[in-house]
Amino acid sequence: MQELGTRLQAIEGRNARVSDEKAWETSWVRCGLIAGITYGCGVVLLTALGHEGAWKHALVPVMGYLLSTLSLPAVKKIWIEQRHKKDLQNVTIH
């Protein structure tokens, strides 16, 4: 019986870690860090290349990243709905 309790605790610990990792993947903190690092790298690179207005032009990849990040949840929802519709159409009842 004690083995069952140990296994249950291991499963609950794993579920908590998975939940935390999912929360991190969808967090605004992570998104902001990636955008900030991307912007900083872009400014440094463009400045090193002698590009005028590096601070402004470095916003291009950041905006692309942010737009894709904001649109992905909506696209994911549509994709999942379409997948479930397709799965339901393929079900045959005997």
Q: What this model shows, in words?
A:
The protein is mainly α and 94 residues long. The protein has one domain. 85% of the residues lie in helices and 0% in strands. α2 crosses α4. It is flat.
Unreliable spans:
none
Radius of gyration: 22 Å
Count of helical stretches: 4
Q: How would a crystallographer describe the biggest sheet?
A: none
Proportion of β residues? Answer: under 5%
Structural class: mainly alpha
On the 0 to 100 scale, the average pLDDT is 90
Helix content: over 70%
Describe the secondary structure blueprint for this structure.
Layout: H1 2-25, H2 28-48, H3 54-57, H4 59-89
Helix pairs in contact: 2-4
Which labels suit this protein?
mainly alpha; 94 residues; flat; 0% strand; single chain
Quick recap of the structure?
It contains four helices and no strands. With 94 residues, it is mostly helical.
